[in-house]
Design goal:
It is built from three helices and eight strands; from the N terminus they run E-E-E-H-E-E-H-E-E-E-H. With 191 residues, the chain is α/β, with parallel strands linked by helices. The chain has two domains: 9-138, no CATH class; 140-191. Helix 1 links the parallel strand 3 (33-37) and strand 4. The radius of gyration is 24 Å and the shape is elongated.
Length: 191
Protein backbone atom coordinates (compact mmCIF):
# COMPACT_ATOMS: atom_id res chain seq x y z
CA UNK A 1 0.00 0.00 0.00
CA UNK A 2 1.33 3.40 -0.99
CA UNK A 3 1.79 6.16 1.60
CA UNK A 4 1.61 8.79 -1.12
CA UNK A 5 -1.24 11.23 -0.67
CA UNK A 6 -3.98 11.05 -3.30
CA UNK A 7 -5.21 14.22 -4.96
CA UNK A 8 -8.28 15.08 -7.02
CA UNK A 9 -8.81 17.67 -9.74
CA UNK A 10 -11.38 20.45 -9.73
CA UNK A 11 -12.53 22.84 -12.41
CA UNK A 12 -13.31 26.38 -11.35
CA UNK A 13 -15.51 28.54 -13.56
CA UNK A 14 -16.10 32.26 -13.35
CA UNK A 15 -19.05 33.35 -11.25
CA UNK A 16 -21.81 35.84 -12.07
CA UNK A 17 -20.15 38.98 -13.48
CA UNK A 18 -16.83 37.22 -13.04
CA UNK A 19 -13.98 36.99 -15.53
CA UNK A 20 -11.47 34.44 -16.78
CA UNK A 21 -11.06 30.72 -16.44
CA UNK A 22 -12.11 28.05 -16.31
CA UNK A 23 -9.12 26.76 -14.34
CA UNK A 24 -8.15 23.16 -13.75
CA UNK A 25 -6.68 22.81 -10.27
CA UNK A 26 -4.63 19.67 -9.74
CA UNK A 27 -2.49 19.58 -6.58
CA UNK A 28 0.49 17.24 -6.54
CA UNK A 29 3.26 16.39 -4.06
CA UNK A 30 5.34 19.51 -3.37
CA UNK A 31 2.72 21.74 -5.04
CA UNK A 32 -0.42 21.16 -3.02
CA UNK A 33 -1.04 24.42 -1.16
CA UNK A 34 -4.44 26.03 -1.50
CA UNK A 35 -2.92 29.40 -0.63
CA UNK A 36 -5.46 31.71 0.96
CA UNK A 37 -4.72 35.46 0.97
CA UNK A 38 -8.01 36.92 2.17
CA UNK A 39 -7.18 38.92 5.26
CA UNK A 40 -6.35 36.13 7.67
CA UNK A 41 -7.82 32.73 8.19
CA UNK A 42 -8.99 30.27 5.59
CA UNK A 43 -11.78 31.51 3.32
CA UNK A 44 -14.63 29.01 2.75
CA UNK A 45 -13.79 28.85 -0.99
CA UNK A 46 -10.16 27.91 -0.21
CA UNK A 47 -11.27 25.31 2.32
CA UNK A 48 -13.75 23.83 -0.16
CA UNK A 49 -11.04 23.52 -2.83
CA UNK A 50 -8.74 21.87 -0.28
CA UNK A 51 -11.48 19.47 0.83
CA UNK A 52 -12.29 18.41 -2.74
CA UNK A 53 -8.71 18.13 -4.02
CA UNK A 54 -6.91 16.80 -0.95
CA UNK A 55 -4.67 19.87 -1.07
CA UNK A 56 -3.54 21.72 2.04
CA UNK A 57 -5.38 24.91 2.95
CA UNK A 58 -2.74 27.47 3.95
CA UNK A 59 -3.16 30.99 5.39
CA UNK A 60 -0.86 32.99 3.11
CA UNK A 61 -1.88 36.24 4.75
CA UNK A 62 -0.13 35.43 8.02
CA UNK A 63 2.72 33.25 6.74
CA UNK A 64 4.59 32.88 3.44
CA UNK A 65 5.59 29.94 1.26
CA UNK A 66 7.38 29.66 -2.10
CA UNK A 67 5.30 30.26 -5.21
CA UNK A 68 6.37 26.83 -6.52
CA UNK A 69 4.46 25.15 -3.66
CA UNK A 70 1.13 26.80 -4.52
CA UNK A 71 -1.46 24.80 -6.48
CA UNK A 72 -3.86 27.76 -6.45
CA UNK A 73 -4.05 31.13 -4.70
CA UNK A 74 -7.44 32.24 -3.38
CA UNK A 75 -7.71 36.03 -2.98
CA UNK A 76 -10.35 38.63 -2.18
CA UNK A 77 -8.95 41.59 -4.11
CA UNK A 78 -11.19 44.22 -5.67
CA UNK A 79 -8.68 45.06 -8.38
CA UNK A 80 -5.48 46.72 -7.18
CA UNK A 81 -2.33 44.83 -6.21
CA UNK A 82 -3.01 41.23 -5.09
CA UNK A 83 -5.15 40.65 -8.17
CA UNK A 84 -2.01 40.51 -10.33
CA UNK A 85 0.75 39.31 -8.00
CA UNK A 86 0.03 35.59 -8.27
CA UNK A 87 -0.73 35.53 -12.04
CA UNK A 88 2.55 37.45 -12.55
CA UNK A 89 4.33 34.51 -10.88
CA UNK A 90 2.42 31.98 -13.00
CA UNK A 91 0.22 30.86 -10.07
CA UNK A 92 -3.38 29.93 -10.82
CA UNK A 93 -5.50 32.52 -9.03
CA UNK A 94 -9.11 32.48 -7.82
CA UNK A 95 -10.68 35.80 -6.78
CA UNK A 96 -13.86 35.60 -4.72
CA UNK A 97 -14.74 39.11 -5.99
CA UNK A 98 -16.04 39.70 -9.53
CA UNK A 99 -12.88 41.42 -10.69
CA UNK A 100 -11.62 42.00 -14.23
CA UNK A 101 -7.97 42.61 -15.12
CA UNK A 102 -6.92 45.90 -13.55
CA UNK A 103 -4.28 47.54 -11.41
CA UNK A 104 -0.55 47.95 -12.00
CA UNK A 105 -0.10 44.25 -12.89
CA UNK A 106 -2.98 44.24 -15.43
CA UNK A 107 -0.93 42.66 -18.21
CA UNK A 108 -0.25 39.46 -16.22
CA UNK A 109 -3.92 38.65 -15.56
CA UNK A 110 -4.81 36.11 -18.26
CA UNK A 111 -7.90 33.91 -18.49
CA UNK A 112 -5.78 30.74 -18.27
CA UNK A 113 -4.30 31.91 -14.93
CA UNK A 114 -7.15 33.82 -13.31
CA UNK A 115 -10.85 33.41 -12.56
CA UNK A 116 -13.10 35.72 -10.53
CA UNK A 117 -16.53 35.91 -8.94
CA UNK A 118 -15.98 32.45 -7.49
CA UNK A 119 -18.10 30.84 -4.79
CA UNK A 120 -18.43 27.13 -3.97
CA UNK A 121 -21.05 26.86 -6.74
CA UNK A 122 -18.39 27.44 -9.42
CA UNK A 123 -16.12 24.62 -8.20
CA UNK A 124 -16.66 21.17 -9.67
CA UNK A 125 -14.85 17.94 -8.87
CA UNK A 126 -13.43 16.21 -11.96
CA UNK A 127 -13.92 12.47 -12.01
CA UNK A 128 -10.46 10.91 -12.22
CA UNK A 129 -11.72 8.24 -14.62
CA UNK A 130 -13.45 10.59 -17.01
CA UNK A 131 -11.98 13.06 -19.45
CA UNK A 132 -11.25 16.59 -18.32
CA UNK A 133 -13.86 18.88 -19.84
CA UNK A 134 -12.51 20.56 -22.93
CA UNK A 135 -13.07 24.04 -21.51
CA UNK A 136 -10.66 23.64 -18.61
CA UNK A 137 -7.72 26.05 -18.82
CA UNK A 138 -8.71 27.10 -22.33
CA UNK A 139 -11.14 29.61 -23.72
CA UNK A 140 -12.97 29.27 -27.03
CA UNK A 141 -12.19 31.65 -29.86
CA UNK A 142 -15.66 33.19 -29.57
CA UNK A 143 -15.12 33.85 -25.84
CA UNK A 144 -11.70 35.38 -26.53
CA UNK A 145 -13.18 37.66 -29.19
CA UNK A 146 -15.92 38.73 -26.76
CA UNK A 147 -13.37 39.39 -24.01
CA UNK A 148 -11.21 41.43 -26.40
CA UNK A 149 -14.27 43.44 -27.45
CA UNK A 150 -15.06 44.18 -23.78
CA UNK A 151 -11.49 45.30 -23.10
CA UNK A 152 -11.43 47.46 -26.26
CA UNK A 153 -14.75 49.05 -25.30
CA UNK A 154 -13.47 49.81 -21.79
CA UNK A 155 -10.26 51.25 -23.28
CA UNK A 156 -12.30 53.46 -25.64
CA UNK A 157 -14.32 54.80 -22.71
CA UNK A 158 -11.14 55.52 -20.76
CA UNK A 159 -9.59 57.32 -23.74
CA UNK A 160 -12.75 59.39 -24.28
CA UNK A 161 -12.80 60.39 -20.61
CA UNK A 162 -9.11 61.32 -20.74
CA UNK A 163 -9.60 63.39 -23.91
CA UNK A 164 -12.47 65.28 -22.25
CA UNK A 165 -10.34 65.95 -19.18
CA UNK A 166 -7.48 67.24 -21.37
CA UNK A 167 -9.87 69.49 -23.31
CA UNK A 168 -11.20 70.92 -20.05
CA UNK A 169 -7.69 71.52 -18.74
CA UNK A 170 -6.62 73.24 -21.97
CA UNK A 171 -9.75 75.38 -21.96
CA UNK A 172 -9.16 76.38 -18.33
CA UNK A 173 -5.52 77.20 -19.13
CA UNK A 174 -6.57 79.37 -22.10
CA UNK A 175 -9.11 81.22 -19.95
CA UNK A 176 -6.52 81.71 -17.22
CA UNK A 177 -4.06 82.97 -19.82
CA UNK A 178 -6.62 85.53 -21.09
CA UNK A 179 -7.26 86.69 -17.54
CA UNK A 180 -3.55 87.14 -16.93
CA UNK A 181 -2.96 88.97 -20.17
CA UNK A 182 -5.92 91.27 -19.36
CA UNK A 183 -4.51 91.85 -15.88
CA UNK A 184 -1.06 92.55 -17.27
CA UNK A 185 -2.55 95.05 -19.73
CA UNK A 186 -4.35 96.81 -16.89
CA UNK A 187 -1.27 96.72 -14.66
CA UNK A 188 0.91 98.20 -17.40
CA UNK A 189 -1.77 100.67 -18.42
CA UNK A 190 -2.08 99.31 -21.96
CA UNK A 191 -5.90 99.69 -21.97
Amino acid sequence: MSDEKQYNKVIINKGPRGWGGPLLIEPKPGKDLIYCVTGGGIHPVAQYIADLTGGTAFDGFNSKRDFEEIAVAVIDCGGTARVGVYPMKGVLTVDVHSTKPSGPLFRFIKEDLFVSGVSQEQIQLVDGNGPVPEAANSVSSAEKVEQVKEVVEEAKEMVEETVEEVKETVSEAKNEGKKRSGFMKWLLGDN
